[in-house]
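HUMAN: Ready with one sample?

ASSISTANT:
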Amino acid sequence: MPIKPVIAEARQRMDATVEALRRELASMRTGRASLAMLDGVRVDYYGSPTPLSQVSNLSTPDPTLVTIQPWDPQLLPVIEKAIRSSDLDLNPQNDGKIIRIPVPPLTEERRKSLVKHAHKHAEEARVSIRNIRRDANDQLKKTLKDHEIGEDEEKHAIADVQKLTDQHVEKINEILKNKEAEILAV
């Protein structure tokens, strides 16, 4: 197996890991209203768990309010229940036509908890990146053992995989730093 596909696969898997972290952190609640924080909320729509955005119109008319207008008014209580049972600590208000969700400012304790949670997700992403590096290096060692590449080629390829790993870990650190600043901003 040549070197390029091994490195290309590692890059693709690392990119996917970084993107998954980006999505995960975007769904975390900060002190501002964001539609991304509702991405994980699923409602029971005719027996199947459906994302909120597929059964309603979502908007943020101001930085401290999210509004949800379901296309089927019978979903109002179901949506309200799904939001209350999520771990977002939000209190939806149903007026019979639309659900308003005021986004209160975060307490200092909740901010610290969210930062800790973000660090946990970032560390899981870093571990995933390192596992991808290990898999790529194992594949390269196997190609060397099978005499498909020489020792110099293997050393250069392993160095390339390490560079790729460092770049992706740096991206993870940058995403975490930005999210932490967003959470801690008052």
Remarks:
- The CA atoms of residues 15 and 168 lie 7 Å apart.
